[in-house]
């Protein structure tokens, strides 16, 4: 794959499948290009010598084009691509559908397309694409009805229909774009390729997109991390409520619905996830036009008490906070505001405030070093000129170089003022919560710009021993492993209690006698996942009771599930749970992002409480430590209510070691360590279960 700059700025475009027939896609693309494209348009159709008054070629290889837009029947696409490749045309947009989205025959055709692209080093958009646009050169190589306005955002979408709707709306809202691409099936070029290209484009200030899936999740994370150091990325990802199609047998698999991987992956990538189309454009516009704040503290200047309270609530529900003014600022407000006003945040300058009072209050607030950004909130009054207030707001932002969001509430009287601010890059919203969302996006991106990403630690582990344990599934019908795989954790340096698995009561007693104190005994069967539910766990067993406990556990298991594969009983050192916290560390393999790590509060209620957090593996030390801070139960780990703090470092290292294990062995589909008991002086993995794909070993 070559550079993509020529894809969006070609000099000569060949339309393969051009026609003058009304209603044909080839006609729509030709019309769009002829109307506005700065370069040359070349029709390709062996049936004609001339189309649209232009010379028509029989083969794309004869056109000397630098971009080929292909809109011919599916079976003709591949020969056309070969001809383009042989002629040195590196950039191809395949509009035609009928590939991977249509079944096995289409999937095979799409693989052929991929092979041709690789053979000739082609940049291919699609297939099944609406096309691409570039407003700099007036290129509308789509079959959409409208051309986008010029702007500083570049936009990618997996839905062509969404692009046409967005352009129609954006044109009404005076919102412009630099590049637009309909990703289609992403057979060759995907979202990572485009964000890297737009990061190098000085005219793209913000990258936005609508995605239904991400082709290679880990690669996207790594690419986006580099991009977001310079260029913000804002995405809408659909399918948020989809719980996933696979049947999960681990706690992690049950809790980690398909959206959890996207939520974790996009956050790790530094991508801001929009919750709606409105949120997408609110966020993009503020990121493209506003300076970044130095802190999260907001000053609210308002002439309306009620909306001021609404704004305060919205800030309280966000990652922002209300700014605490310095004594000098409070003194300045005391001198300039009427007695009935409020000098504290939100600053109420009272309903009779004129333009001079508004301007002075905003000037004082922005001058305060404690203030990172401001929100100007106003309702219309007879003594306030909205147009003048807009001009004053623009002037003061230029003076202080701090982000400002405006909330000029009202109807038509706001329009002219809103236009004044929009021209200066200051967004105006009717709803205070949307204004707060905009400021929060700036704060989030300021944090993203400051991130440092450390590389995952490579621990010294016994990979061969781990492989031997995993390969035991090849000799059995069941692909799940339980506590019989505890040595897998030992091989990767994850500490486990002393113990062994036995299939005879006498052996159980021998193991117990070599362990200090009482023991825990558990039934061992890959067919019995929730051992506690059937009485398959006995805690605090004394040596003299081991024999009877063994027999009772076996009997309970057989009565519960007569056809269960019972491997024996685990006899294990007893871990004092009163001194620690039961946590869970797990992994579920996502089809697009790969291994998704989970950490949370563990024990028997993990699926009920779902106090968990996620990261895409491999996980670095910083990311693992952050996971221990994000769960609601984090204070318990750090010593709440006089309890001793547990070994956070031990938890962090366990997350990293398990991350390395599941990255090293793609055959592990899901895995739980539950509980991982965190104690003041260390951590111990008490139980494990995992599912293995033997074909991947």
TrEMBL record:
Protein name (Swiss-Prot/TrEMBL): acetate--CoA ligase (ADP-forming)
Natural source organism: Haloferax denitrificans ATCC 35960
Signal peptide: none
Lineage: Archaea, Methanobacteriati, Methanobacteriota, Stenosarchaea group, Halobacteria
SUPFAM superfamilies assigned: Glutathione synthetase ATP-binding domain-like, NAD(P)-binding Rossmann-fold domains, Succinyl-CoA synthetase domains
EC number of this enzyme: 6.2.1.13
Domain CoA-binding intervals: 7-99
Reactions performed catalytically: acetate + ATP + CoA = acetyl-CoA + ADP + phosphate
GO molecular function list: acetate-CoA ligase (ADP-forming) activity; ATP binding
Keywords in alphabetical order: ATP-binding, Ligase, Nucleotide-binding
Class of the enzyme per the UniProt entry, highest EC level: ligase
UniProt superkingdom: Archaea
